[in-house]
Amino acid sequence: MPASATSQRLVLMGAVLGAHGIKGEVKVKSFAAKPAAIAEYGPLTDPKRKRTFELSIVGTADAAKGILIARMAGITDRNAAEALKGVELFVDRGRLPAPEDPEEYYLADLIGLSAFDGKGEKLGEIVSVDNYGAGDLLLVVPESGEGFVVPFTKAFVPVVDIKGGRVVLDLPADFFEVPEHEEEEAAELQEAAP
């Protein structure tokens, strides 16, 4: 994958949980392997609000959960800090260090890779990696048709080739089959529609 493609991706590094105290400090949940490292990557971006934040760590609220107490440049009172609750903090992928182990990679590096089945047939492209609490999920979108979600486990994704720009998926034979009861429900909904 070209370096320019990886440097244009934003990686979620943390989220503001709310205000801490009255002087503008915030509680930040860090997703960095070493939580305090979130402040070492330079300015963090909130793409939704199109803002950039300089972050400095001033303490730890819950070390086990990666919750830090931080100051953000320009935030000087509790009201301004509270207004940042829910802000997600991103860093450009190009500013993250390269993994030491060649077998390691960032989840963001999976986005844009082509997904193939075991026979070499292209199934689509990975457009996102999400986690709703039960594990990482890859959203694969084919050239035509609807996308599908695959659990990001060794059983479903036995080959990850970042340099080659591809992954290999090992999907069960019935992976794309719709269970009968879902087909019946869809038909009932269509009949009930005006």
Please give a handful of descriptors for the protein shown.
194 residues, mainly beta, Elongation Factor Tu (Ef-tu), domain 3, SH3 type barrels, six-stranded mixed sheet, five-stranded antiparallel sheet, 3 helices, globular
What does the model show?
The chain folds into 2 domains: 3-95, Elongation Factor Tu (Ef-tu), domain 3; 107-169, SH3 type barrels (Roll), CATH 2.30.30. It is mainly β and 194 residues long. The radius of gyration is 21 Å and the shape is globular. Strand 3 and strand 4 form a beta hairpin. The protein starts with a helix and ends with a helix. A 6-stranded mixed beta sheet has the order 11-10-9-8-13-12, with no helix packed on it. The protein contains 3 helices and 13 strands; from the N terminus they run H-E-E-E-E-E-E-H-E-E-E-E-E-E-E-H.
Number of domains: 2
Rg is: 21 Å
Instruction: Output the strand order for the largest sheet.
Output: 11-10-9-8-13-12
Determine the oligomeric state from the structure: single chain
Give the SSE string. HEEEEEEHEEEEEEEH
- Mean pLDDT comes to 87
The helicity comes to 10-25%
Task: Show the helix and strand layout.
Elements (H helix, E strand, L loop, with lengths): L2 H5 L2 E11 L4 E6 L13 E3 L4 E3 L1 E8 L4 E6 L5 H5 L5 E5 L21 E4 L4 E10 L4 E6 L6 E4 L7 E3 L4 E4 L10 H13 L2
Parallel strand pairs: 8-13
Antiparallel strand pairs: 1-2, 1-7, 2-6, 3-4, 5-6, 8-9, 9-10, 10-11, 12-13
